[in-house]
Design brief:
It contains five helices and 20 strands. By secondary structure, it is an alpha+beta fold. The chain has three domains: 48 residues; 85 residues, Phage tail protein beta-alpha-beta fold (3-Layer(bab) Sandwich), CATH 3.55.50.30; 154 residues, Jelly Rolls.
Length: 316
């Protein structure tokens, strides 16, 4: 069946004759019915997300991947595996000091976590991330440490500032929403902090005396050995907590690295010409990596296969 006819049928603009033809075609075989369902899924993708470049532009080596946001998709409230440990601090004298219990949450590849801290702060942790935090905040400063990526909705408490410690920078806040990413594996950006609401202050651990204050809708990235501050242009970058992978002008190779984290699978790009192609779009984690790659195949030429043990995807 002609794809354009099917798309008109889905959109409700097909002629009576075309509608009859589609119905007859679907009734003819189960294979046709499966193709209709598959094409409807692609049509939903194209319908609900318009992109500037729906096909690859050879001169700029670009292609776009549009995806629909499912309304029923909710923020993940739990993960299948949480590794939690407790650390206890006491002094060396006979009299014990108040015990401070520290919890550690580790999010494995392919998972996300959402938790509420004792002060009411809401935290979303992305895949391959870990955070250490007290079971109960009892000090003047509410302090947590982070590796990986997290989104914080901090409960406001002027008398008890909230501090996120990372390897690169410390982030001090009073009450705000912000996203933090610390990734030593990525060469283009080792540290990123994006402020969506409120105010935060960044202290560079390499230069303890220097600090940067961000205003709402600003982000700071550690790039090329220095901190760069600019305005946030796309809020989609921080929608991973909703089960979305959003990307804009990202290299194909870097996108595959992101898929590796999200789906806990190794991806080997054997077709080297794909490495620098730029991709833009949104995809649902729930759609699965195979479906996303199939949509990408509609814009550029490559094939993919899985290893016998299903742990590696080869892109050719």
């Amino acid at each position: 069946m002609d794809r354009n006819v099917l798309h008109r049928f889905f959109a409700g603009t097909a002629s009576f004759e075309e509608e009859e033809a589609v119905c007859d075609w679907v009734d003819a075989s189960d294979k046709n019915r499966e193709e209709l369902i598959r094409e409807r899924k692609y049509f939903d993708v194209l319908l609900l997300h318009k992109t500037k470049n729906s096909s690859m532009v050879q001169s700029g080596h670009r292609f776009s991947l549009p995806f629909v946001i499912r309304e029923s998709l909710k923020i993940a409230a739990a993960i299948s595996v949480l590794l939690v440990s407790a650390l206890y601090i006491s002094n060396n004298v006979g009299k014990s000091a108040p015990v401070l219990e520290m919890n550690k949450i580790v999010v494995p590849p392919g998972q996300r976590a959402n938790l509420t801290l004792s002060d009411g702060t809401n935290v979303w942790l992305n895949a391959c991330s870990e955070m250490t935090y007290p079971a109960s905040f009892s000090e003047d400063i509410r302090r947590v440490s982070l590796k990986g990526e997290a989104y914080f909705d901090v409960s406001k408490d002027v008398e008890h500032p909230f501090v996120v410690q990372t390897k690169k920078c410390d982030i001090k806040v009073l009450g705000t929403e912000f996203n933090v990413r610390v990734n030593e594996a990525e060469s283009d950006c080792e540290f990123s902090a994006a402020l969506l609401e409120g105010s935060i202050e960044l202290t560079n651990k390499m230069e303890p005396g220097s600090s940067i204050r961000l205003a709402s809708m600003q982000k700071a990235e550690w790039t090329g050995g220095k901190m760069v501050v600019e305005s946030i242009r796309n809020l989609d970058d921080y929608r991973w907590k909703e089960g979305l992978i959003c990307f804009e002008d990202i290299r194909f190779a870097d996108l595959m690295k992101r898929f590796e984290k999200t789906y806990d699978i190794r991806i080997v790009i054997q077709n080297k010409s794909l490495h620098d192609y730029k991709c833009s779009g949104k995809c649902r984690v729930s759609d699965g990596v195979d479906f996303i790659l199939q949509v990408l195949q509609r814009s550029t030429r490559f094939t993919f296969s899985r290893s016998d043990d299903n742990t590696i995807i080869y892109i050719k």
